[in-house]
Structure formats: C-alpha cells, structure tokens
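Project standup — Tuesday

K.O.: blocked on the structure for the chain from last sprint. Re-posting the sequence here as requested.
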Amino acid sequence: MSPAQVLGWHKGTMYPEEVLNRILFATRYTRSLDKHGYLRFHHWKLYGERGLAGSPVAVWVYDGSLKVEYQAVLLSQYTVELQEDRKHLRQVSNPRLMDTPFRSPQWTLFDLGPDDWLLYLHLPEYAARRRIRKVKGLVQLELFDAISIPKAAGAEVSPPRLRLVAQESHEQ
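H.V.: unblocked you, prediction finished:
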C-alpha cells in the first residue's frame, strides 16, 4: 500500500496564507519595553506601548514588516527593509499604532498624534568600552582637610537612652 492510499482519506486542516507565512517565514524575538514604552532592536528604538513599560513583548520580523505584540495583541507595526544578511534592519518607515486596552492611565501633558512624535529612531552603533588603566603609586588626595573640633564638656559620657513610660504620675 502506498502512503496516498493509507492517508488519502485524511485531508488535514487548511490554514490561511497569512498564518502560514507567519509560521514559516517570520522570525520572532523577545524584547522588554523601557519606561517610555520603547524597545531596542538592532540599533533601532521602536515604540510599543507606554502603558506596558517594563513588560516583555514579541517582535515579529517578516520580509517587509515588523510587528510588536503583547500577549497576541498587536501594539504597533512598521515597514522595514532588511540588510543583505536578512538579520539586521537597514531602514524603518511607515509606523502604525494600534488602539489597545493597555493604554497608560497617566494622562499626557500634550495630545500628540502619531505624526507629532518619534515612533522610531536609528541609534548609533555600540562603542567599545574603554579599559580603565590602573596606575601604580597613584594616591587619591582628600577633598577636605579634617578639622579637629574639641569635644564639648561631658562628651565622654554616653547620651541618655529613651525609655518607655507606662503612665505619667500626677502626684508630684
């Protein structure tokens, strides 16, 4: 018997093309939002949602788009152009914010639309950290000279300790 004869009756489940593309051709990353609702992704700062500051979000990278999701709820979507290695972003454009139930309860000082503020920003490359060289024989001097202040009379005696008094006596 051929496999087609054995499994011929089983047709399987049909999935929409969007679901198959997401499963087969997408790359998923996990990032955390900073205190302003942005995430850092390959030298880019992208806006997710200010009301979810500190929360982990999923970043889906398709061939031409990048989506930021929290618990399968789409927060924002960007059009991206990938570099030749297909891992790093060359260009980000066309930001789209979604209305979500995760809005911050803090009111904003100014009502800004999506075109009035930066939703993405290209950051400079990381700079190599400079090594701190230790120099032998180098001594840090004191900032201020210690001034000797004479002690007040009775300073050798320890200060009286506080004690709890149950009731005040009125018979004195």
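K.O.: great, moving the ticket to review. The helical segments are 3-7, 17-25. The first strand starts at residue 27 and ends at 32.
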